[in-house]
Amino acid sequence: MAESRHRLLLDVDTGIDDAVALLYLLATPGAGIEAITCTAGNVGARQVAVNNLALLELCGHAGIEVAVGSEVPLEIPLVTTEETHGDQGIGYAVLPPPRGRISGRHAVDVWLEAVRCHPGQVTGLVTGPLTNLALALRAEPELPTLLKGLVIMGGAFNYPGNTTPVAEWNTHVDPHAAKEVFAAYEGLPFEKLPIVCALETTERIECTPAHVDAVARAAGAGPELLDPQGPEGMRSTSDNAVVACLSDALRFYMEFHRLYDQGYVAHLHDLFAAMVATGEAQFEERLATVDVETQSPLTIGQTVADFAGMWKRAPNARIVTGNDPEAVFELMVRRLSHLARMHG
Asked: Running DSSP on this structure, what letter comes out for residue 314?
């Protein structure tokens, strides 16, 4: 880890797109994962931890600490989304039960030790609800300055939500946590502000069957055909375990998107956020002051960005406003096919 160019601390709710992001990070030279902390979101926090342990073992990276944090949001009941990600969170993919065990430490303790032992060196990447990060900020208000940087997948700005007409999933699960996190960053230097990958750019990362097939062929595993006309619930027949896992997870996700008239595609929100965290994704951004609605039953979870300074408050976020999906998928195919060749 000491030789890693990018020391990353992940907080996830794995989740199909979280899983693809993790595979990418495990395949990226110079990306060192300090630990993975788990929060409830796509599925329960304990299932999230099991998914991460199984994916790490699949890819030959057993030994990375996986810790559970809060199993419920700060103030509202937990809602999970098995209809989107499958009962276990990774679609149709079935992995062997992991041999590794969940850490005995709480996620907050993992975050605090990492930043205190390596101040200014660790980049946080949060691809689930912000519950654990909010709790860590309560315990250590200096966390934003101790981190090297922070990348968040969440929110929607001047763009429809994917959970309610105005709210994105991660923020909707725990809007109170998101509100606390953004408030903690208000007025900090530009380089310390969180980079926010919201729906208006992450929904541009549309994975198609052709991308999965490209990974398989580049890995030497032969064709991997996800047929939009085929029956639901089909499983991969690939002999490559990484390709089969990727294919079975994404098939479920594509079927979900088709069900909601979005096409036979899978939005890989978290993959893009991971590439931002490693510095491998090019993007455009704008400074803004972000706040989150927590009171209105009509708009709870909505992220509101003041780009024009109307609130007379200092910026607290760098919102991604443009990206390059073609470059994202070129890199995904290159990285994941190498991972499949090595560990499949």
From this structure: -
Q: Residue 298 pairs with which residues in a beta bridge?
A: none
Residue pLDDT, tens place only, 190-209 = 999 999 999 999 999 999 99
DSSP secondary structure, 27-49, as one string: TSTTEEEEEEEE-SSSS-HHHHH
Three-state DSSP state, 114:
helix
Q: Does residue 241 register a pLDDT over 90?
A: yes
Give the up-direction half-sphere exposure of residue 310: CA atoms within 13 A in the CB hemisphere: 7
| 42 strand-pairing partners | none
User: Pick from 221, 206, 207: which is nearest to 337 by CA?
Assistant: 221
pLDDT tens-digit profile of 132-170? Answer: 999 999 999 999 999 999 999 999 999 999 999 999 999
What is the Cα–Cα distance from 326 to 266, expressed in whole angstroms? Answer: 15
Q: What pLDDT does residue 1 have?
A: 37
- Whole-number CA gyration radius for the chain: 19
Query: Pick from 266, 243, 252, 271: which is nearest to 10 by CA?
Result: 271
Q: What is the C-alpha to C-alpha distance for residues 270 and 19, in angstroms, rounded to an integer? A: 9
* Rounded CA separation 234/221 (Å): 18
Q: For residue range 117-135, what is the model confidence (pLDDT) as tens digits?
A: 999 999 999 999 999 999 9
Spatial distance between the Cα atoms of 250 and 268, rounded to a whole number of angstroms: 10
Distance CA 294, CA 324 (A): 33
The CA distance from 264 to 51, in Å, is 25
**Contact by Cβ (8 Å): 273, 197:** yes
